[in-house]
Amino acid sequence: MKRIATGLLVGAVSLSMLAGCSSNSNSNSSSGGTIKIGVALELSGAVATYGQDTKSGVEMAVDEINAAGGVNGKKIELVTYDTQSDPAVATTMATKLTTQDKVISIVAPATSGSYKAISPVANANKVPIVSGSATADGATQDSSGKPLPYSFRVCFADSFQGTAMAAFAKDTLNAKTAVIYGDQSSDYAKGLAAAFEKAFTAGGGTIVDKQAYIAGDTDFSATLTKLKAEQFDVIYMPGYYQEVGLIIKAARGLGINVPVLGGDGYDSPTLLELGGAAALNDVYFTNFYSSLDQDPKIQKFIADYKVKFNKEPSGFAAMAYDNIHFQVDAIKRATALTGEAVATAMAATKDFPAITGTLSVDPATHNAIKPAVIIQLKDGVQYKSVKAGA
Q1: d(CA 328, CA 65)
Q2: CA dihedral 343, 344, 346, 351 (to 10 degrees)
Q3: CA-CA distances (angstroms) from residue 326 to 29, 77, 125?
Q4: pLDDT reported for residue 8
Q5: What 8-state DSSP symbol labels residue 235?
Q6: 136, 214, 279, 293: which has the fewest C-beta neighbours closer than 10 Å?
Q7: Residue 24 maps to which CATH number?
């Protein structure tokens, strides 16, 4: 997933810094009795719930692995920094992790803007980064489309979830017309909107109108009043919980009661706080997993997570748990404890048994090949779920 324009990237790390760091690339190996894994997450700021849930999933996985004896006789040591939901800060933290802390790999930010911001640092220093939720198309590739050697994710891309939701709208909700109302300041939301529009129109649907808001907006009345005068079957609303919760509440208050569709950015308890239970009906969003899935692996994970944190895990927590196990699997298969060897092992991953679905790494993109889940909310809580694609 996502957030924040990536234009900050150029100013965040100078070319001289990147060049100076690259000479240390082969020394990013762990020694002694521990294996250092870096964690750079949005623990405060605009999308803090994503980073906090990710951190919980990471810590749960590491605690379990260490309790079982660690990795090749070594315990995992986490080195954690707060990116403050800011790509520039994320870049600074990634530089510390790769050049000072000498981590073997990094749990990368939850959002695409920050993920893309740290990618040059990670690749210059030959330290693999893995995100469980940075879904922007192209985030793991260079400008020519080739996979960046040290950039990975264990989640699908926005084009996949946008396409999956378009198919769901047409085939399950029988929608023939749609409105798109998304966050124009977010690469994530724009990517979802483009994918949904392309797939929905290719399937015979019509986009009646397209409207946009900007992250941080709080008054959506003018746009919603305009939309109320139009006729459409569904509204596709890609964005983050902060604005989406407010928009849905306002839309329902104006009598716009068509199904609302979105992406994994809806997966936060704050959505319910902002939107209210009464408004959050007939709401559907694509996600990485659903707590309603009765797969024994998922149910055990949920039960263990509840014991440890006294709450139900979000998709971000589940993906973080899978992220660590994915990294550890690669470390075990690597020919040496270096970032280069671990990245090679990650790229070769096939049929890894993650709790959120068996995944393989696409060698052409370094994306995960895995299914999505479409979740329906009833009174603001998960009510039904269905898998979509693979």
Answers
A1: 9
A2: 180
A3: 18, 16, 21
A4: 32
A5: E
A6: 214
A7: 3.40.50.2300
Tell me: do 116 and 15 sit in the same domain: yes
> Mean pLDDT, the chain, as a whole number?
91
Alpha carbon distance 285, 135 (integer Å): 14
Domain hosting 199: range is 159-287
Rounded to 5°, the CA angle 215-123-80 comes to 65
pLDDT for residue 314: 92
Give strand pairing partners of 209. Answer: 179
pLDDT of residue 187: 84
Q: Are residues 35 and 147 in the same domain?
A: yes
Task: Choose the final residue of a domain: 287, 319, 342.
Answer: 287
The predicted-structure confidence for 125-151, as pLDDT tens digits, reads as follows 999 999 999 999 999 999 999 999 999
Strand partners, 260: 235, 283
**CA 233, 238, 240: angle at the middle one, nearest 5?**
135
Indicate the helix (H) or strand (E) that contains 241. Answer: helix 241-253
Q: Are residues 33 and 152 in the same domain?
A: yes
> Tokens in use for 286?
């694509």
Residue 383 lies in a domain: no
3-state helix, strand, coil in the chain (%, to 5): 45, 20, 40
Q: In sequence order, which residues have a C-beta less than 8 Å from that of residue 370 and are 6 or more positions away?
A: 154, 155, 156, 354, 356, 357, 358, 359, 360, 390
Strand-pairing partners, residue 368, are 361
For residue 308 the two structure tokens come to 């440890």
- 338-385 pLDDT, tens per residue? 999 999 999 999 999 999 999 999 999 999 999 899 999 999 999 999
Residues composing the chain: 390
| Contact residues for 388 (Cβ-Cβ < 8 A; gap 6+) | 164, 165, 167, 168, 286, 371, 372, 373, 374
Reading the block at residue 232, the tokens are: 């459409």
Rounded to two decimals, the pTM is 0.84
Kindly state the tokens that stand for 359: 């995944």
Same domain, 246 and 208: yes
Amino acid at 52: Q
CA distance 80 to 128: 16
pLDDT at 33: 87
Instruction: Give the pLDDT mean for 149-169.
Output: 95
